[in-house]
Design goal:
The protein has 8 helices and 8 strands. By secondary structure, the protein is of the alpha/beta class. Strand 6, helix 5 and strand 7 form a beta-alpha-beta unit.
Length: 214
């Protein structure tokens, strides 16, 4: 409940995504986890609104800093930020510029195997940034490759958690997940503000409940 309440301050992001046409309702298969989903959140459209992308980066910066200052810190110290190609790379770049933290990323399908772009040293801790998490596969793959290169991964940050097992999968891999919004909070906002129909709302909630991890 506390996490849900804390996310209501980020409803500007839900409103921005709605105005961008980034939230759609229908029948979508989105990778390995979200099959026949009645709702799709296309966070890549955020790059079409630079002010919103910049604001998202500032919110992530402030949230991470707050979690690090807690009596029992919720985010470990880190020396690099890594964007997950390609959805998280734009967001990670914006965060890097805002927080003044050096950026690295894994070059996809490099002929010589894994190649990390950006200066880094073995033993450094990396914060992974992505736009959205569903089952956690993209973040886990990025974390594995970074770890294989001698880097440490303890935390990941996303704008939206679709609540379909990603948080639990990351926890099993020793990665703590921080999200600005959950899909349910977005749906609640859209319904309460009269932007979607009761049918779309209830169908999406039923899907989430069916696919929510035990």
């Amino acid at each position: 409940m506390a996490r849900a309440l804390s996310q209501t301050g980020n409803l500007w992001l839900a409103d921005t995504l709605w105005k961008l046409g980034a939230i759609e309702f229908g029948d979508f298969t989105l990778g390995r986890t979200a099959v026949h989903s009645p709702v799709h959140v296309n966070l890549r459209l955020l790059i079409s609104k630079p002010a919103a992308l910049q604001r998202a980066a500032r919110v992530i910066r402030d949230k991470v800093a707050t979690l690090q200052r807690m009596l029992n810190p919720q985010v470990a110290p880190f020396q690099r930020v890594a964007g997950v190609p390609f959805g998280g790379l734009h967001l990670a770049t914006a965060y890097s510029l805002t927080a003044k933290v050096p950026l690295i990323y894994i070059r996809p399908q490099h002929a010589d195997g894994v190649r990390i772009e950006g200066l880094h040293e073995r033993g450094q801790t990396v914060l992974i940034v992505d736009d959205l998490v569903t089952g956690g596969h993209s973040i886990l793959d990025t974390a594995q490759r970074l770890r294989e290169e001698g880097l440490q991964v303890k935390d990941a940050v996303v704008l939206v958690d679709r609540q379909q097992g990603g948080r639990q999968a990351l926890r099993k891999a020793g990665i703590n997940l921080t999200s600005l919004l959950t899909l349910q909070v977005i749906l609640n906002y859209l319904m309460s503000s009269g932007k979607i129909t009761e049918e779309s709302y209830q169908r999406s909630l039923a899907y989430l409940e069916t696919h929510r991890p035990p």
